[in-house]
Amino acid sequence: MDIRKVRIEKGNKCWDVEGVYGSGVCEYLDEFHHCKNCPVYALGGRHLLEREISPDMIKEWTSIISLPKEPETRDLKSFVIFRIADEWLALNTNIFQEAVVNKFVHFVPSRTNDYLHGIINVNGELLVCISLAKFLNLPRVMPDTLNGKENEYKYILIIFDKYTRYAFPADEFLGVSSISEEEMSQPPLTVTKSDNTVTKSIISHNSRTISIIDDFKLFSLIDKKVVW
Question: pTM value?
C-alpha cells in the first residue's frame, strides 16, 4: 500500500468520504476494519500537527504570552460579610449556612431577652434567633417596618456550631468574599482587652473596614448567655 499515493487519489479526508464517516465503500476497510487503524488516517493526523502556523495565530499567541502575569495571591480565606448598625463584620464561611430574607421572629414568653430574640421558622425547622448585635455591643437590629409587620427582619443569617444552628438578624448582607491573610491586621488593644470581645482581626476590603469575628469565642459566648 502506497500511503501517499492513496492519500493523493482519495483526497485529504478520505475517511469522511469513503471511510466509516462517509459512504463506507473504501476497499481498505476489510483489512483495517476502521479508518483509525489505517496508515492513511495516521498520516493525515501528522500533517495536521505539522502544518504551518498562520501569521494571525502567531500574532494572537504572542500578545497573550506577552501579557504581564498576575501576582499570585496565597492563603485566601472565605468570609461572609454583613453589616450591623454602622459596623461591617465578617464570619468564616465554615460556620455559615445561608441567608434568608423577610423572616418573622416569634417572641417566646419568659425566654426572650437582650441576647435572645425568640425562634424563627426556616424551611420548616425552628431555630433559636439570637442578637449578634448584643454580643458585639452594637445597636440592636431593628425590624423592617415598611411592610407593617412588627417582628419581621429583612436579613436573617444562619450559622452553625457542630449540631446546633442559630439565626441572627443583620441590617445588610453583602455576600461571600475571598480575603488574603496579608490584608488582615490585629485589632486595637482597646478592643482585644475587652472581656466580651470576639474580634480577632481587622481588614480593609473594598474601601470598608471589616471586623472578623472569632467563631470559637462567639459560640462560647452564646453557650454562656443563651439559656433555652
Answer: 0.63
Q: Which residues of 62-84 are buried (b: 16+ CB within 10 A; e: fewer)?
A: eeeeeeeeeeeeeeebebbbbbb
Of residues 210, 188, 177, 216, the one with CA closest to residue 84: 210
Q: Give how far Cα 22 sits from Cα of 5, 14, 191, Å.
A: 20, 8, 77
Q: What tens digit of pLDDT does each residue of 75-101 get? A: 788 999 999 999 999 999 999 999 999
What is the Cα–Cα distance from 130 to 118, expressed in whole angstroms?
7
Alpha helices (H) in the chain, listed in sequence order: 3-10, 14-17, 29-32, 39-50, 55-65, 132-135, 189-192, 215-225
Contacts of 159 (CB under 8 A, 6+ apart): 91, 95, 96, 97, 165, 166, 167, 168, 215
To the nearest 10°, the Cα dihedral for 42, 48, 52, 58?
Answer: -140
Strand order in the sheet with 184-185: 172-180, 76-84, 87-92, 208-213, 199-205, 184-185
Residue type, 186: Q
**Assigned C-alpha cell, 86:** 454602622
Distance, CA of 200 to CA of 130 (rounded, Å): 21
Close Cβ partners of 215 (under 8 Å, ≥ 6 residues apart): 91, 92, 94, 95, 159, 161
